[in-house]
Amino acid sequence: MSEPSSRIWPTVLVSVVGALILTVLPLPQWLQPWRPSWIALVMIYWLIYEPRRIGLMTAWLTGLCLDTLRGVLLGQHALALTIMGFVAMQFHLRVRVFPMGQQTATVFMLVAIYEFMLFWVDGVSGEPGSDWRRWLSVLASTAVWPPVTTVLHRMRLVREPAGEV
């Protein structure tokens, strides 16, 4: 039996705030291109494992928060997260039962869609083009997917009452 919606929202909020903090946390200049797309990973997780409770509106609002925090074009991350989230929700039944290797390959594709949408919006809005290092975050995000999934699984299971599994 799955948990009621009111019990999952604090867990989602904590994970999203944690991802926002990790996203704006200062890193050395040489490590910046390797920063995983924390928000994208958290949204992928929730949209795959709780698609009925955590929908595209959550992805869109989270993207607006990220746009505000990073001081970029308002709606840029919101659009990218919403499109990526739509694709994730379309495949959520399949991805949930994939072994970790196939899940990781799917996450690679989803984060690549997210980064491509950001790249496209930058191009359309006249932002200066970025170099190949922009795509290193896709590799970093793919590499941290297994631990992120483990942490979020545990956070989600802690919220479940003892009798309901």
Topology:
Elements: H1 5-24, H2 38-49, H3 56-70, H4 76-90, H5 92-97, H6 100-125, H7 136-158
Helix pairs in contact: 1-2, 2-4, 2-7, 3-4, 4-6, 6-7
Report on this structure.
This protein is mostly helical. The protein has one domain (5-158): Arp2/3 complex 21 kDa subunit ARPC3 (Orthogonal Bundle). It has seven helices and no strands. It has helices at residues 5-24, 38-49, 56-70, 76-90, 92-97, 100-125, 136-158. Helix 1 (5-24) runs antiparallel to helix 2, helix 2 runs parallel beside helix 4 and helix 4 (76-90) packs antiparallel against helix 6. The longest helix has 26 residues, at 100-125. The model has no long low-confidence stretch (mean pLDDT 91).
Main sheet specs: none
Number of helices: 7
Q: How many beta-strand elements?
A: 0
Strand content: under 5%
Q: State the secondary-structure class.
A: mainly alpha
The CATH level-2 architecture is identified as Orthogonal Bundle
Total domains:
1
Q: What name does the CATH topology carry?
A: Arp2/3 complex 21 kDa subunit ARPC3
- First CA to last CA: what distance? 6 Å
Unreliable stretches covering 5 or more consecutive residues: none
Helical content, roughly?
over 70%
What are the secondary-structure elements, in order, as H or E?
Answer: HHHHHHH
Rg over CA atoms: 16 Å
